[in-house]
Amino acid sequence: MAIDRANVEKIIKAVGGADNIEAATHCVTRLRFSLADEKKVDHKLLEQNDLVKGHFSSQGQFQVVIGPGLVDKVYDEMIAITGGSRSSKDDVKKAAAKKQNPLQQAIKTLADIFIPILPAIVTAGLLLGINNILTGPGIFFEGRSLVQEYPAWTDFAGIINLIANTAFTFLPALIGWSAATRFGGSPLLGIVLGLILVHPDLLNAWAYAQAAQEGKIPHWNLFGWQFEKIGYQGQVLPVLVSAYLLARVERFLNKKVHDSIKLLVVAPVALLVTGFLAFTIIGPVTFAIGNAITNGLVHVFNTLPALGGILYGGIYALLVVTGMHHTFLAVDVQLIGSKGGTFLWPMLALSNIAQGSAALAMLLVFREQKSKGLAVTSSVSAFLGVTEPAIFGVNIRYKYPFIFGMIGSAIGGLVLTINHVLASSIGVGGIPGFLSIYPNQWGVFFVGMAIVLVVPFLLTAVYGKVASRKAGPADTNNESAPVQASSGTAATNETAATAAVSEAAPVVPAGKAVNVLDIQAPLAGVVVPLENVPDPAFAERQMGQGIAIEPSDGKVVAPFDAKVVHIIKSKHAIILEHATGVQVLIHIGINTVSLKGAPFTLHVGIGDEVKAGQLLIEFDREAILQARLPVITPIIIPDGQPIVGRVTEEPAGAKVAGRDIVLKIQLSPQGI
Fold it and tell me: PTS EIIC type-1 domain: from which residue to which, for each copy (predicted)?
């Protein structure tokens, strides 16, 4: 398809002109801009542009949806018009990050550091939970533990405890690796720095309080300057600041030292300088700051436990929405390291359950089978610790489930804090979270769990039913009803959304499938409606009709006999063309372009002819989830294909795999 240069010029004008574009790149579906001033964007001009299917701002990037197959041509034309240089996706991300305020930058930095090490911490937490079950008295036998009753299990529990505690014992090494990487230094030097801070020759940080009480803290004497010879087990701030300094020193030396002697100079000098400063200045100062923050939090929750529980328990879901919840990972780790447990994490687990319970209650409010399926699948996900599908797919969309989830979580948080419930580690949130709670506090935690299961469910179900009755029966024939969520009635909004979709792509009547192309499931998993994909370009069907699949494995196969016509450079999206000319886009995950192809393995190339069921792409599902990116995969029939007539979709909630049909396309006689 030829690109109208005038329309591209209008896009440039609409985003504020070439001077307002700091950097621009594109993915398989959209242009991504970092703009000097987003207030200069002319939204009406964009909406009037035939090339533009939608636009929105996200994480400092202004995104203009063009659609697969055209976006690269539009981008090339735009670069030719503006005379600008081509930017990578990292360039745009960096430019967008510069516009964030200091708080946003700090939150993002902490998230970038702690998210990569989260799997190790969560695994350690789960194993500690198993150890708690084996060694906790009173769980299976009155006053005695399982290993006391059956001594043969003692060493088994000991091995589990050793494996579990390793991540916490050498936590500074994990943080050092991740922080050095984030700050642009050598990951290996970051690991070494972390290990230096927990060297066995140092006084263990966990023994510091007793040693101070006994007056037995060892000291170094550096030319008359005495400072404490202590380690920093379980500490966060000392290694964070030291890793930042290490990266700065290393980068400085790499610029100044000649290549011929870099190996002999850079690493030794960087570690020596950072190590001395870590033990003499950085460590003591940040150790004191970290303890002050920890003691302050403990004091607040000891003095006003009810208020602390209501506030943190209530607003945690809001922290998830804003991304600020990542900040508290560092606080949890600090509390566990210095106090032996965290009172914040148990409230996280209850908040997950509360949002899941509110989403599940919508099963009684929704009328459409598609939405009922979403309510069930998203709530199960939340009960297992992953709340994004419930929060973004259901609760925020209708507002009141989200609010009632927060209310239930606040009450649960109150119960936990007034009873001083602690988690011995960070584990999996939701219902499995009890494994991380000290066994002698399970009873109280289960009471809190019952509260967050019952309260949000009842409030959401009752309010939803009452609001639906007040709104009256939904007009299922009103195809022009606007698609928008309100705090009024989910059923009405849901019907409006369904009607709007039907107008764009009417359903093929049963038994009339003449000249119909069947699209088989390219992935195994659960069908999700596009409206619940956490990306406006897909959710608002700006690129075309289709469905999404929440995958259960990491394989994408051909949904029909086809030709591969396009593969995005970062390997997360592919476009296939049927012999009839119908094209289908398969887009693995959301914002997975940021992973630069790392979790994806291609098994085909552009121009290849493939058979239905043939393996196209393999992806590491866990790696995508660990990067805190949704793995939900849209399957799109792009707009603008004359051959495509009506489209019908598999109902949401259906489990599909292999040769299960997820879409049916009635071929248009005019397009054949």
Answer: 108-479
Contact 224, 190 (CB under 8 A): no
- Intervals of the chain under pLDDT 50: 473-514
The CATH code of the domain that includes 645 is 2.70.70.10
Residue 220 belongs to what H/E stretch?
strand 219-222
Cross-sheet strand order for the sheet of 583-587: 609-610, 562-567, 573-577, 583-587, 633-638, 544-551, 525-528, 655-656
Rounded Cα distance, 357 and 154, in Å: 39
Which range marks the domain in which residue 220 is found?
108-302
> What's the distance, Cα to Cα, between the start and end of the chain in Å?
17
Euclidean distance between CA atoms 316 and 276, whole angstroms: 39
- Helix-helix angle 442-471:345-361, to 10 degrees: 30
DSSP calls for 304-331: SHHHHHHHHHHHHHHHHHHTGGGHHHHH
Tell me, yes or no, if the pTM score tops 0.70: no
Q: Which of 583, 605, 572 is nearest to 519 (CA)?
A: 583
Looking at residue 479, its pLDDT comes to 32
**DSSP tag of 16:** T
pLDDT tens-digit map of 239-272: 999 999 999 999 999 988 988 898 899 999 999 9
Closest CA to 627 of 114, 53, 241, 14: 114
Beta bridge mates, 225: 222
What 8-state DSSP symbol labels residue 197? T
Taking 3-state DSSP, the helix, strand and coil percentages for the chain, each rounded to the nearest 5, stand at 55, 15, 30
How many domains would you assign to the chain?
Answer: 4
* 392 and 458 belong to one structural domain: yes
Instruction: Please name every residue paired with 371 in a beta bridge, in sequence order, or none if there are none.
Output: none
Round to whole Å and give the CA distance between 74 and 633. Answer: 25
Is there a single domain that holds both residue 66 and residue 129? no
